[in-house]
Amino acid sequence: MENAGRRDITSQAEETSAVELSHNLTTVTTEIKAYQSIGGQAIFEIGRRLKWVKENDLAHGEYMKWLKESVNMNPTTAQRFVKIASELPNRYSSTDLGWKALYEIATMPPEERDNPQQLDSGETKKPDEMTVRELRETKRKLAAAYSENMANQTLLTQADKKAQKLQAQVTKLQQRDPDIKQVEVEPADYQDTKADLKAANEKIADLQKLVDDAVDDHNHRLAYELELEKAKADQEEIKADLNDLEVKRQNMLKQNAQIREVQKMVKSINELLDNFAMLRNRLDTTMLPDESSLVQGLTEMADKLIENGQVLHDDLAHPYHV
After folding, report:
1. Inter-CA distances, 155 with 145, 152, 161, 321, Å
2. Euclidean distance between the first and final Cα of the chain, in Å?
3. Contact criterion met (CB below 8 Å) for 144 and 223
4. DSSP for 266-317, written as a single string
5. Which among 91, 7, 94, 82 is positioned nearest to 45, based on CA atoms?
6. Which of 45, 82, 89, 215 is the one with CA 20 to 30 A from 164?
């Protein structure tokens, strides 16, 4: 039953992604806000619409302003939603993964997105089964492995070229016709040449050590760059969280301002009601002429108090959002 439900969601996502988007910014904004209230497929639909608005300049050069004021989303988060919608196939829309996990998968090499990976804990998981932390751990491992492989490929290429060169020299020597008879005679400079050869071999060994040290230094520098990239990503995430907190803070400030305004109004109304009570206690209605404008005014005032009091009573009993 669960698999059938997933297929239905995936099918719906594929059908939705085929629908042409509106060129009306208000319509697209409304759709994005609607999708913000749900998960799964909504991440892809939001990213698709953000990309549509930006590429077609529906905000008329004010994309960032539109993001903040109309969609209530910071640019970093919006960029990641677009990345998810652009990189991942629709089948990911049927998962329960959040947008942060989907973004990590979207920034993995495509050929690794479905491959099981072994974690530091010893577990083996596919990317869509991992947490955000596990995905980042996996990406660091893949990057390190890629760098190591590239370094090894470079060394192998250099060694292969050197071997080919030596083989060519050997072949050339083998093909050359000897023009003298071989006589086992030690040349006068044989020992010197032997010593020079030994020195040359030692120099080659020293050079090889320098190469090895350079490779190690490169690997250390690469690891540092990976850590730096991670730190930058964490910083961006913190900035995004701070932006979200700022939005919440602004909303709370607005709410507090409204509460203070209502409190002032309540105080004024209470004072008015106190005055009304004094009027009622002092007023002798038998002294008022019938059908006078004063009687009509007092009657209308009493009716309004009753009507508005009942409405307020009902609103407090059944709260609703304005």
Report:
1. 15, 5, 10, 68
2. 40
3. yes
4. HHHHHHHHHHHHHHHHH--GGGSPTT-HHHHHHHHHHHHHHHHHHHHHHHHH
5. 82
6. 215
- Which two tokens mark 262? 């209502």
Non-local CB neighbours of 295 within 8 Å, separated by 6+ positions: 288, 289
- As a whole number of angstroms, the distance between CA 269 and CA 226 comes to 64
Q: Note the pTM of the prediction, 2 decimals.
A: 0.41
pLDDT tens per residue across span 145-171: 888 878 878 877 786 787 787 777 777
- pLDDT over threshold 50, residue 239: yes
Task: Please classify residue 140 by burial: count the beta carbons closer than 10 Å to its beta carbon, then call 0-12 exposed, 13-18 middle and 19+ buried.
Answer: middle
What residues does each domain of the chain span?
25-145
Backbone region of residue 37 per phi and psi (left: phi > 0; alpha: psi in -120 to 50; beta: other values): alpha
Comparing C-alpha atoms, which of 279, 278, 260, 273 is closest to residue 305?
273
- 118: helix, coil or strand? strand
Whose CA is closest to 13, among 36, 37, 46? 46
